[in-house]
Amino acid sequence: MSKTDEIDDSTAPLIEHLAELRNRLIHSVAAFIVGMVICFTVATPVFNFLTAPLCKVLAEGGQDCALIFISPQEGFFVAIKISFLGGFILAFPYIGFQMWRFVAPGLYKSEKGAFLPFLIASPFMFLLGASFAFYVVTPLAYDFFLGFQQFGSGGEAVVGEQVNQGLSVVFQGSAQEYLNLTIKFIVAFGLCFQLPVLLTLMGKAGLVSAEGLGSVRKYAVVAILVLAALVTPPDVITQIILFVVVYGLYEISIFLVRRVEAKREAKLRAEGYYDDEEMEAHPDEPVPAEAEDGKG
């Protein structure tokens, strides 16, 4: 076989993989567009649902729940943002399935069994974090923000001709600004709840260990405190809630990684690859690939 033939043979699989990737991307984009169109048709009910935390806080203060458009095109952009977020959420299971179909042929059976649970757990944890943000964090955040309103002498909001009864600085929010802040909370907490999935998957791959995660616990505490200060309003209660939740997820991650390591050790013992004396003498030595993946 000539050198040119060898090059052509090696190039063919790459072209096939790129063609397969292109097809999967086309299917994923199509699903995302379909999800966007569906969400665009119901953008108004979805937006009304997302205003529930704000309306609840305003109702408790005796105010009407009213948002305004400060520009003619703002309503359209609100619908587009809802379509983007909702379309991605609706299409994510199908996009994840396309990702799985692309990588699965190149995985061993043991690797498929290890990767698939994380692919299923990721959207579940994101929805759990988004729900926690919407039902717990946003009401507390808006209660804090709206606490800076100033009311007239009668105890209610004073507007128009009655403003001479007392200074009144009341909330008249932009629909787009409210949506931006609410989405920020939902996405931030949804991503934070991915922590156990990410660290457990890294532990499965041997990139992190339970002992290593435990040894950097004090640095994790500082990082979580910084995160809480960045993604939450300057409200101590909300920041404490986020810190407790994320730190709890970190400790859960350590527990899950420890379980992964225990299962790996039990498997190696059963297959005769694990030597207690050798592992004690060389604790940092990597596990044999054939023992880990069952490829030998």
How would you briefly describe this protein structure?
The protein is 74% helix and 1% strand.
Q: Which residues form runs of ≥5 with pLDDT under 50?
A: 4-10, 284-296
Radius of gyration: 26 Å
The count of helical stretches stands at 12
The N- and C-terminal alpha carbons lie at a distance of: 31 Å
> What oligomeric state do the depicted chains represent?
single chain
Shape: flat
Q: What does the average pLDDT come to?
A: 78
For the largest beta-sheet, the strand count, sense and barrel status come to: 2 strands, parallel
Structural class comes to mainly alpha
Percent helix among the residues? Answer: over 70%
Strands side by side in the biggest sheet: 1-2
Number of strands: 2
Beta-strand proportion: under 5%
- The sequence of SSEs as H and E is HHHEHHEHHHHHHH
